[in-house]
Amino acid sequence: MIEEIFYLDEGHIKITAASVGISNRRWKASKANGSKYKSLMKVNRFDILPIISNDGKTYEFYKTNKPNNYDNISKHPITYKDVIPLDTSIRDIIKGFATDERTFYFLTYHSRITGLITLGNLNCRQVQVYIFGLICELERMLSEFIEVVLTKGQLEDFIIKKSESNKKLQEVWEHYKELIKVDLENKLIEHLYLSDFFNIINHFKHNIILNYSNTQWDDLSGVNDLRHLVAHPTRSLLDKNNDIKRLWKRIGKIEDLTFRLNQWRHFNNRKNGSS
Asked: For the chain, what is the radius of gyration of the CA atoms?
């Protein structure tokens, strides 16, 4: 049955440049030979302003020589380095901003300029959803890893010992015991947080299983910082303390750890005769 396709869909999140950027139907632009572009850019705090030519298309743009400084603005032709297809993944957009040190791209559809995406557009719900999806997948895989490499008793003993000096874990342990008393089936791992997963794996030195040195494992703390950032939708994803290069570096850490966990899972399943 054709509808079976929908039941097999794993629900991967797909965020594109178009879903984050702005269409040329909605952008503010300057007409060719227009004289008010400086005031338009200053009032709206635009570092990039498209120029609409007489035929209604965009071939040029104004750009501030320094971000947020509207004293010196230059006109530039749009080159191939300035454009990307509008269906480019948000991951590749972030990578381009970070590695090529860009702050904008014009979006194209069949070689026609149809929109614009800037660094500031990344402070939006869609990008937060994309990153939170990466982190959710990582948390799920870390919990599965811990359940395999540790026994139930080892995990409980760890939580009991750490709860003596950790109020958060003490509350987790007490709540877990209350649920056990009323015969509510649950797993202790379900009550823990991403930071707990990192600490547990570090404590038992199981980071070695994933080919991480202790120093490399400690360096993954930025992943948890990113989780806190996207878990609060009212906060900006990018600011003076969290630039695009740091964001890309953290995404790279998530992807690397997720890849290693996947590789370990496949190897472990094959070793145990599972599919």
From this structure: 24
CB-based contact 263:211 (threshold 8 Å): no
pTM over 0.85: yes
CATH architecture entry for 4-122: Roll (3.10)
For residue range 225-262, list pLDDT tens digits in order.
Answer: 999 988 887 888 998 889 999 999 999 999 999 999 99
Q: Where are the domains of the chain?
A: 4-122, 125-271
**Short-list 21, 217, 202, CA closest to 120:** 21
Give the CB-side neighbour count of residue 202, counting CA atoms within 13 A. 14
- Under a CB-based contact definition with an 8 Å cutoff, are residues 250 and 94 in contact? no
Q: Name residue 232's amino acid.
A: H
On the 0-12 / 13-18 / 19+ scale of CB atoms within 10 A, 250 is buried
